[in-house]
Amino acid sequence: MQIYLDGKLVPESEAKISVFDHGVLYGDGVFEGIRVYHGRIFKLAEHLDRLFASARAIMLTIPLSREELTRACRETCAANGLRDGYIRLVVTRGVGYLGLNPFKCPKASVFIIASTIELYPEAVYREGLKLITAATQRINPAALSPSIKSLNYLNNILAKIEAVNAGTVEAIMLNSDGYVAECTGDNLFLVRGNRLETPPVSAGALNGITRGVVMELARGMGWAVAEPNLTRYDVMTADECFLTGTAAEIVPVVSVDGRAIGSGRPGAVTLQLTDAFRKLTQTTGTVI
Ligand code: PXG
User: Fold this and answer.
1) pLDDT tens digit sequence for 72-93
2) Which of 94, 131, 142, 286 has the fewest other C-beta atoms within 10 Å?
3) Is 149 labeled as catalytic in the residue annotation?
4) Rounded to an integer, what distance in angstroms lies between the CA atom of residue 208 and that of residue 152?
5) What's the pLDDT at 284?
6) Angle of helix 209-220 versus helix 44-57 axis, rounded to 10
7) In terms of Cα–Cα distance, which of 246, 249, 201, 197 is closest to 226?
């Protein structure tokens, strides 16, 4: 596998970063996970928007322009013959000293992996996912904005551990006010009548790219879309529930904390949106 690292494509065995990189020492950096479908990079512009916004929020200067990053992503895919898969684009603070000060790191490091990602098993799309509610709260925006897609995922990893220990793979995370924020690596949607509901970014939801696509598709299909604060009660009483994410796409949820949601089967609206989403992934994107 060829990896893009600071301006060059290098073999995987040579793709190494320093132990003094603050990305390693402090989780000081930002990243994006991007899908490639049919030889096209899906929603690359939106991912770059979010990457640059995350970087700006932590005063990290990305040493490449949007055009250069676009070219680097395409070249990395091409070098690996990747036509369907996953791009991990990472910008770390770069090499510095022991000590937090990010301003002592002269140059950010950029690497790009174009590979495959572990997806949910096919059965999950047919039969639906069982969720739990994690005891670990989504990090408080007053401490660290959940909108920053940073290299520090420990908050989500602690909730993921709870999910796996409970025999499942995803968990709902509530914010410190008790409202639903999102899951550990996916956004959450509810269907109620002919309305889609998803937590607002202000409740601690990542501004998910898939979330945005689904909201747009749903509006185009004639459904109302709203972003109210949602409680566990709202989840328990919804007609349907599903998750969205770059890796997950759209995954039906059939139970939460052992309670069936709606009919306890993947819902009709969820399946219709999944169809529309898959069509879109096959027909749009930045050509490699
Ligand atoms: N919330 C969180 C906390 C995420 O990390 C999403 C929601 C969904 O956003 P997108 O933009 O993907 O629709 C994410 C995205 C991985 C992996 O390696 C994680 C994500 C995406 C792709 C891969 O676990 N999380």
Assistant:
1) 999 999 999 999 999 999 999 9
2) 142
3) yes
4) 17
5) 94
6) 130
7) 197
On whether the CB atoms of residues 182 and 173 are closer than 8 A, the answer is yes
**Residue-wise burial string across 252-267, b where 16 or more C-beta atoms lie within 10 A, e elsewhere:** bbbbbeeeebbeebbb
- Domains of the chain plus CATH, in order, are 2-115 (3.30.470.10), 122-281 (3.20.10.10)
pTM as predicted: 0.97
Q: Which of 8, 104, 107, 149 is catalytic?
A: 149
Which amino acid is it at 112? Answer: I
What's the CA-to-centroid distance between 104 and ligand 1, angstroms? 30
Q: Is 206 in the pocket of ligand 1 (CB under 6 A)?
A: yes
What does the pLDDT read at residue 91?
A: 98
- Cβ(267)–Cβ(255) under 8 Å? no
231-255 mean pLDDT: 98
Structure tokens at 92: 């770390």
